[in-house]
Amino acid sequence: MKPPRIDHIGIVVEELEPAIAAFTRLLPGAPLRRRSVPDAGLEVAEFAAENLIVELLRYTDDGDGFGRAVMGSAPGVNHLSLSVPDLDAALAQLGAAGVAPLPGFPRRGAHGRIAFLPPEGVTGLRVELCQPDDDGAHAGVAE
Question: Model-level pTM?
């Protein structure tokens, strides 16, 4: 069995522009791509490093929108996203092992179909499964 590929890490930030400036310095030369996910109440800035994407997430709503409900409000490292070639098959396999996605998933995310799983029991880390779109979003990331 092939080991899973980490697609991205998601980091919640309070202000997007200062975070973009900081990561531009930390990841010089990494392409930046911006996205808006209005139905989740998010603005997203993605830096494509050689081996994974760093996704900066800023909430655009003032309340308990879908994004906040799933990911919480605390700034900092929020989730680890695993790339899967077939999200439905991955969810079926997890379902057979007794793991179901959170309510409202699967759905469209910033760059593909996604499903968040309940926070991991030992570390509390949120895990997202992502079936990336085939639109070149990961062109700067080595396979």
Answer: 0.86
